[in-house]
């Protein structure tokens, strides 16, 4: 199944990460070694294919028409180079990867697998960062294009009425944090009707 293939691939990735995480980063040479090893991990075919599968899933949220049964098809081909090349030749697959490039998809769990998964590829009980600190963009929903609005509406509970983009960042931070979140935001949402969904979420 797709879930099993994903877990097995993540277990493989975590095996690759073991050497990286074991490096003491006290010296510049340690950092250089970590960078080289990290590049090798990112070049791993199974890791790349997992990113591509996730791109397909996310591109579907952007309106890409994905044929039925493709996730099982990709799961069955993930560890076979020839079968994977056949999948790569499909129009829907190429469109998904092009959408990922155009929209700059960022898959938190795959970018930082050591933060979210244990050695067995299972989600950690304490999955997430210890802290997320930031200064999110302040952009009113009226200034966001229709494609993004549709995606936000399907992905974020705070995307109601006249919300601001910083509210989405607060919700996202909550999903990737196991500890605390600190953001610089305007205070209007404490009282305005447009801030109701964000107040409810918080």
State the distance separating the first and last CA atoms.
36 Å
Catalogue the unreliable spans. Answer: none
Subunit arrangement of the protein:
single chain
Listing every helix as H and every strand as E from the N terminus to the C terminus, the arrangement reads HHHHHHHHEHHEH
Class per helix and strand makeup: mainly alpha
| Residues in helix, % | 55-70%
Question: How many whole angstroms does the radius of gyration measure?
Answer: 19 Å
Which word captures the global form?
globular
Please report the total strand number as a whole number. Answer: 2
> Going across the major beta sheet, what is the strand order?
1-2
Mean pLDDT: 92
Mind describing the biggest β-sheet? Answer: 2 strands, parallel
| Beta strand % | 5-15%
Number of separate helices: 11
Topology overview:
Elements: H1 2-22, H2 28-42, H3 45-61, H4 70-77, H5 81-88, H6 91-103, H7 108-111, H8 113-116, E1 129-134, H9 146-155, H10 165-175, E2 177-183, H11 196-201
Parallel strand pairs: 1-2
Helix pairs in contact: 1-2, 1-4, 3-6
How would you describe this structure to a colleague?
There is one protein chain. The protein has helices spanning 2-22, 28-42, 45-61, 70-77, 81-88, 91-103, 108-111, 113-116, 146-155, 165-175, 196-201, and strands at residues 129-134, 177-183. The chain is mainly α. Strands 1-2 form a two-stranded parallel sheet. Helix 1 crosses helix 4 (70-77). The radius of gyration is 19 Å and the shape is globular. 18% of the residues are buried.
